[in-house]
Write a structure and sequence with these properties.
Pectate Lyase C-like; Elongation Factor Tu (Ef-tu), domain 3; 3 domains; seven-stranded parallel β-sheet
């Protein structure tokens, strides 16, 4: 843990010196009047050799009172005397990232630009695959008859092709007309398949589910199967161990060294996984302490990322995407191999449930999960685009995947339990997606279960709810240019007390606009008056809107509190820095959103 702690403290203390100051969170002294031009920044070189990361002496800082479960500071808020919002201003945080990226030093926050389909470099494709029209297999929209069997036949035929589009002409299709069903209605397996409709709005393609499903273990309120289950492979979601990592690596690195790479090949999908109870010490949570009831954390499997191998030289592996976590050779870091599906998509379809009750959290399995729409497991380079969910208590979950995009997703209708949830995945991008339910889903967009490098971008939810971080150790999550509730919200993060903390390092809010209506509320990110709600290393840049108060020592940085900043979007700025310009697909997406 020595190396791990040194890496962690170096980053945290450096950020604290630059960004927090331990007192007033008004970072006006760090503001700069000019936004650096990413196009003028040199391309970051990929080193051909990887020297062992050196551990510099820790910098000396003035003592700061830090909260621990045994000595939590009183809820003293950060300064609330920041000037009122003014014209957006650029800040030192972005310049610091560019300098660190070019020099190879420890990054102030991860590079989130690799999130999404093809790491954001390419538009969602429109392949000329064979088309299978559901009406050719007996489905008939708007006839008020069950279409499930015909649609399943269409999908079965399409999966035999080497690339296929299952086409749903406009109209309403009935898929859940029977009750007492205990299994998913539609099961999809494999790659190169698109479900495509003729529009997700009114008058487009609607898949309607009248009856909810049942669970064989109803006492476990999360166990109802989804209406549609999509699996990219039969591989275990945890993968199969191949070898161990033998050298240190840090956030932002593309290289890892293993004991034996002979069983690995370029283009393999891998999982980098910490599995060592010796790592589950207070050092991993500085300045906090491991709590007695944290049985899952104590198992020592609290850091994991999905990656793809770009190349191999000896026992040195080059990754296609950068690490979003530090790796210490002092602990048992495993490299596992996993098989993922690819090029799966859903486009231009509305998924409409029949959940009509007034939602009550954990009242019963009916309220929590009986109306679950879609679960996707084990995919890379896949997407959902232009979709709508109405009247569900769970909409969409993405698991054991990487390089996945959700674009233009809309949620409406009756309030339910869970919005879009990303878990056990790397580099999922949720962009231009909105919860338009009156009071929002109880848990808004969020992460859980070791999710990493997740980006929620230019999206929104109502003021009555807030983001979800559902415990089991997600890390490196970016809420980027989000309009959503926070202060005084009635929903939000969840998770078992045994699976705390809710979030590990690098929970980043960039230009988050708090729509809440409870100015002055104090947010305790590491509560000691409850067995829930533990968040590590909060990084807030450009937080504005309602004026919540925060406890200084709980923030790794709090820049420009009360004012939005330049660059407007961290994801876009990092992507432009890497590619030299924003890709056309993203410019077009932003343009269309402004025109709506």
């Amino acid at each position: 843990m020595r190396d791990y702690l040194k890496f962690k403290l170096l980053g945290t203390l450096a950020l604290f010196l630059v960004g927090c100051g331990g007192g007033s969170s008004d970072s006006s002294s760090l503001l700069s009047g000019e936004n650096p031009s990413p196009t003028a920044t040199p391309t970051v070189p990929q080193p051909s050799a990887i020297p062992e990361p050196s551990i510099a002496p820790l910098p000396t800082v003035s003592p700061v009172t830090t909260p621990t479960p045994s000595a939590q500071p009183s809820p003293t808020p950060t300064s609330t005397t920041s000037p009122p919002p003014v014209a957006r201003t650029s800040i030192e945080a972005w310049k610091q990232f560019v300098r660190a990226k070019n020099s190879g030093e420890q990054l102030p926050f991860p590079d989130f630009s690799y999130a999404g389909f093809k790491q954001g470099e390419e538009a969602i494709p429109n392949p000329s695959w064979q088309q299978f029209d559901v009406t050719d297999f007996g489905a008939k929209p708007n006839d008020n008859k069950d279409d499930l069997a015909s649609i399943k036949d269409t999908i079965a035929a399409a999966q035999k092709a080497d690339g296929a589009i299952v086409f749903f002409p406009k109209g309403r299709y009935l898929l859940s007309e029977q009750d007492d069903i205990y299994d998913s209605l539609i099961n999809i397996n494999g790659s190169k398949l698109i479900l495509r409709g003729e529009g997700s709005g009114v008058g487009g393609t609607e898949l309607f589910f009248r009856e909810h499903l049942l669970s064989r273990t109803p006492e476990k309120m999360w166990t109802t199967p989804p209406m549609i289950s999509i699996n990219g492979s039969t591989s275990s979601s945890s993968g199969n161990k191949i070898t161990n990592i033998t050298r240190n690596a840090k956030i932002g690195d593309f290289h890892i060294t293993v004991a034996n790479a002979s069983a690995l090949r370029a283009d393999d999908n891998i999982i980098i996984n910490l599995k060592d109870p010796k790592a589950a010490t207070d050092d991993a949570l500085q300045p906090y302490k491991v709590e007695d009831n944290w049985t899952e954390f104590k198992e020592g499997e609290f850091s994991r990322e999905f990656h793809k191998i770009k190349s191999i030289s000896g026992n040195t592996i080059t990754l296609t995407m950068p690490l979003a976590m530090n790796i210490s050779k002092d602990y048992n870091w495993e490299l596992r191999k996993i098989t993922l599906g690819n090029n799966f998509g859903i486009e231009n379809i509305a998924f409409v449930g029949n959940w009509k009750e007034k939602f009550q959290h954990h009242k019963s399995i009916i309220h929590d999960s009986a109306w679950t729409a879609i679960r996707i497991n084990k995919y890379e380079n896949s997407w959902l685009k232009d979709i709508r969910f109405k009247d569900w208590n769970q909409t969409l979950s993405i698991n054991a995947s990487h390089s996945f995009s959700v674009i233009n997703s809309l949620e409406e209708g009756n309030r339910g339990h869970q919005s879009i949830l990303v878990q056990n995945s790397y580099g999922v991008l949720v962009t231009h997606s909105h919860d338009k339910i009156d009071t929002g889903m109880h848990h808004a967009f969020g992460v859980a279960s070791r999710a990493a490098a997740t980006v929620f971008h230019r999206s929104s939810w109502p003021k009555e709810t807030t983001f979800d971080s559902h415990a089991s150790f997600p890390h490196a999550t970016l809420f980027d240019r989000i309009d959503g509730g926070f202060s005084g919200a009635s929903g939000g993060h969840g998770g078992s007390d045994k699976s705390q903390p809710n979030h590990m390092h690098d929970l980043v809010f960039w230009n988050f606009k708090d729509l809440g209506n409870n100015d002055g509320i104090t947010r305790d990110w590491w509560r000691t008056d409850s067995i829930y709600s533990r968040f590590l290393e909060i990084k807030m840049i450009g937080w504005h809107g309602a004026r919540a108060n925060f406890i200084d020592p709980q923030l790794a940085r709090n820049d420009s509190y009360g004012r939005d900043v330049n660059p407007e979007s961290l994801y876009e700025a990092q992507l432009e820095l890497r590619l030299g310009k924003l890709p056309n697909w993203l410019n077009q997406l932003n343009k269309e959103a402004k025109e709506k």
